[in-house]
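hey so i finally got around to running the thing on that chain from the lab meeting. sorry it took forever, my laptop kept dying and i had to restart like 3 times. anyway pasting the input first so we r on the same page abt which one it is
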Amino acid sequence: MNDRPGLRERKKAKTRAAIRKATYRLAAAHGWDATTTDRIAAAAEVSPSTVVRYFPVREDILLGDEDDDLLEARLRARPAAEEPLESLRAVVLEAVRTALDTEPEETRLRARLMVEIPAVRARLTETTATTGRRLARAIADRTGRDADGLEVRIFTAAVLGALREATLHWAEHGRTDDLVTLLDRTVDTLKTGLTVPPARP
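ok and heres what got predicted. didnt touch it at all, straight out
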């Protein structure tokens, strides 16, 4: 069987990529407020209606969910006996490493805009929730639980929320630390919790 995407799918992927590249280029040069749909369309050499058709919410150009399919597939491919928290650690850190290796400037700009632009940060919360629902289904299947069960929802939301906060912390502090290390520390904190320091004599 030939799994290669057809011509239509390849053209759509190329258009999405062109819109994304144009958006990042404009946002880096002029700021998010000046990166209007019309300017994005002109820079990507498409019509404004095409931009809206691919990304009905402008912030989704920065926070698109097309990586959710890959995250879910990788999560489902983890060893069955592995703890869910370790599985999530593995797939998220792999995705972040790939982003930093292939699109370092875009990744840093996206993080900065999350901090600086309320609309981007608000949309991040919404897209994180959507990602969480996708990953909750995979976690539920791996653990024999209901994807809408309280424990699965709390677990998935807690992990993704913590990773989001770690990314914002990274952005707020100049994006100079190693983001992958910060995310790894975040999972460790979720795993062990906080300890009370010993009282001074």
